[in-house]
Design goal:
Order of helices and strands of chain A: HHHHEHEHEHEEHEHHEHEHEHEHEE
InterPro entries (chains A, B): HTH_LacI, LacI/GalR-like_sensor, Lambda_DNA-bd_dom_sf, Peripla_BP_I
Oligomer: homodimer
Strand content of chain A: 15-25%
Keywords (chains A, B): DNA-binding, Transcription, Transcription regulation
Distance between the termini of chain A: 76 Å
Strand order of the largest sheet of chain A: 2-1-3-4-5-11
Domain HTH lacI-type (chains A, B): 2-56
GO molecular function, one term (chains A, B): DNA binding
Protein name (chains A, B): LacI family DNA-binding transcriptional regulator
Radius of gyration of chain A: 26 Å
Chain lengths: 337, 337
DNA sequence: CGACGGAGTCGAAGCGCTTCGACAACCTAT
DNA sequence: ATAGGTTGTCGAAGCGCTTCGACTCCGTCG
């Protein structure tokens, strides 16, 4: 293993000079710099991460806590994780992958040991038990998701309230008056993951303003659950012509069942989904949808974190504006122009 | 920040004693041990990761390289990553998430800097450019996936050859003679990711042995591509009654299109999938499938790695035996008993 | 022309931990 | 009783790096 000292010797300078060449924290003459850089190349030198962390009190590692459960939005999580990792690298950071398994203890462990300089938390619950710990430490952190109380925290998320409103507006504009919302699995609501409730709030308040009738039904993924839910919906509101689906794994079942019942999309009923673009374009009907900007969330989170680590950066909540893309699953309400 | 020295002082022992209590590398009297442990508790001590890494030359970190592209099997990758992370924790390791973006450089960087003690590589290509580096270092590594030449390497993977054979056997047993294979997207074959080819080999050789006619067609995910592929298949082999699907995102399109054409599953045609159980059970027809044992692969990889790190453990290739679960998508070939 | 300040370099002091050798105390077998 | 082992503890020497203060040159300003 090549050390700083060996590079220094090879280049005929002192160790500290090599260090300053590497960090750029003091000015170095062009000649010296080049000599040192050549030595680094020739010897194939890589700074030792542990020694660096010890001396500088910085590990250049960002911890990313992903949820342990894989019951929802897995591709979104993965996309976020990858976006976080690649963005972090462009800023010179590596990413440590923590699962939710350890819960708050992981936060303590990482903070206490100096393993990471900062954390990103995903799948934040409204009243997350990790939050007090984050508030009580001076280690920077960013949440992906929105807890109930955001004071003293930095958060990034899609504006799910606006997302709900946008879906309703789109359907209203097309003349739909009776709208059904296929929600997330009941477990998601029980867990108080904020996004589901915020979407619902947006849907409800905007429908009220626009004078629409809105029916919300939570629903597990899969065909069987969807069949039951759908039957109940048409039972209760036979005039339903608009659907909003949030649960990714309910999308295809819904489309399949509607087809089976002889209800054409978009001629008889319209469907708006909240899902990644990939799902929207690969479904059996190309779906009008509000995209979940996974990459953007990951990238934003890292950039906010890096800003904090560099001394700037304040606590703030970044809500990404939703964008609705019209595809083939929505059209005018039947009986309207 | 609490240090070892402070704990030592608080407990009235020397720093080295505290260190030995922590590592268990020398015997410590019961009394001393308890005193030290109490001090650790009271002061809330966490060993500094950097200092530890520097002194012991061990970071207790395993690097996990995931593919950058998210065009396939994303949920499987995520499940593997999570299994790796949780298993690693039970052995006292943390996981560093690397994306394929940096390519071989990432291997050099991590090996050179002592950031990680070992690596796990996913999405290994048949002739992967990272392999020479792994062979040339004494840092332990495990591949998830199988390259062309496994000499000097440790690998974990599903036995895709046996998987292909198993699918064919199942269909043959039910009396199907003409079988079509809906393969991965052409890009996957071009990239020479081994698993697709190994599956195909298994399918082919076993069909030959059993005297079946096998037609293989690569296929992108999505409805449009599937429609074209399916039309061609029935055009070329009108008597096709058995399907094997490997591409997760082709499953639902295939089922939808068959339904649309009035071909009932499993009465008219049978479908076997190679996919995670979750996909198989959530599809519109509960699919007979060979599961992709993501968790098992992740767990195995970590355990092989830990064995190597602990001094034992040799290079070996672990092929996980495939298991076929019969569900509602396969039945006797029409016209047979 | 002497004082001053910036540029460029070096030496040394740690950062918090592990680990080696030493040693005292005690126990056992001769 | 003495040599030889064990057991439990300590002190000190690093691990490879960053960073602070100090020093030497120069060029510049009053």
């Amino acid at each position: 293993m090549v050390t700083l000292a060996e590079v220094a010797q090879h280049a005929g300078v002192s160790a500290s000079t090599v260090s300053y060449v590497l960090s750029g924290k003091r000015s170095i003459s062009v000649g010296t710099r080049q000599r040192v850089e050549r030595s680094i190349q020739e010897l194939g030198y890589h700074p030792n991460a542990g020694a660096r962390a010890l001396a500088s009190n910085r590990s250049n590692i960002i911890a990313l806590m992903v949820p342990l459960r894989t019951d929802m939005y897995v591709p979104v999580m993965m996309e976020i994780a990858i976006a976080v990792a690649t963005t972090a690298r462009t800023h010179g950071y590596d990413v440590l992958l923590l699962t939710g398994e350890e819960g708050p203890d992981a936060v303590r462990r990482v903070t206490g040991s100096g393993l990471a300089d900062a954390m990103i938390l995903m799948d934040v619950e409204l009243d997350d038990e990790r939050l007090p710990l984050l508030r009580g430490t001076d280690q920077p952190s960013v949440l992906i998701g929105l807890p109930a109380d955001t004071s003293g925290l930095t958060c990034v998320d899609l504006d799910f309230g606006a997302t709900g409103a946008l879906c309703v507006e789109h359907l209203a504009m097309l003349g739909h008056r009776d709208i059904a919302v296929i929600g997330e699995a009941p477990a998601v609501y029980e867990r108080h993951t904020g996004f589901a409730e915020r979407t619902l709030d947006g849907l409800r308040s905007r429908s009220r303003e626009l004078g629409l009738r809105l029916l919300h039904r939570p629903c597990e993924g899969g065909y069987d659950a969807m069949a039951v839910t759908l039957a109940r919906i048409f039972d209760e509101r036979p005039d339903t012509t608009g659907f909003v689906v949030q649960n990714e794994s309910a999308v295809e079942p819904l489309l399949g069942l509607l087809r089976q019942q002889g209800r054409a999309v978009p001629e008889d009923v319209s469907v708006v989904a909240v899902c990644p673009d990939q799902v929207a374009t690969q479904a059996s009907v190309r779906l009008t949808s509000v995209a979940i900007p996974a990459q953007e969330m990951g990238r934003n989170a890292v950039e906010l974190l890096v800003a904090k680590l560099d001394g700037g950066g304040t606590d703030e909540v970044v809500l990404i504006a939703p964008e609705l893309t019209t595809r083939a699953s929505t059209g005018p309400a039947p009986g309207k122009s």
